[in-house]
Amino acid sequence: MQISGVFNKERFFALSIDCSIAIVITLFVMILVRDFPAVAKGVILVTVYLGYFIVFEGLWSRTPGKYHQGLIVRRLDGTKAGWKEAFERGVLILFELNPIFLGGLPAGLAVIRTKAAFWRYAGGYGRRAG
To answer: Would 26 be classed as within a structural domain?
Structure first.
């Protein structure tokens, strides 16, 4: 098990993919609730956006973006992250997006590289295994 760095290429692309998916889902939901009061829309917006990360990490310890980049969320002892950790990470995702605040280890968790990465590189970045 190799712990992923605070900010590296895989985490950047995983977060870009996840934020894009979460925004699309949130916008779709916002269209459905366009007649709700503004405060309710705000609560729904935050809940759906953060819920994306919480649900995926709670169920599978990874989001689609992390899966695509071969990353998985684990506790620091290597065991699978549960719902409690997924909720903590989900709430702290706003700070995690800014590496100055918490870096990559909120809630005592680590993002690790897995051997079964979607993109396999042979000997470093830029060269795919053939």
So the answer is: yes
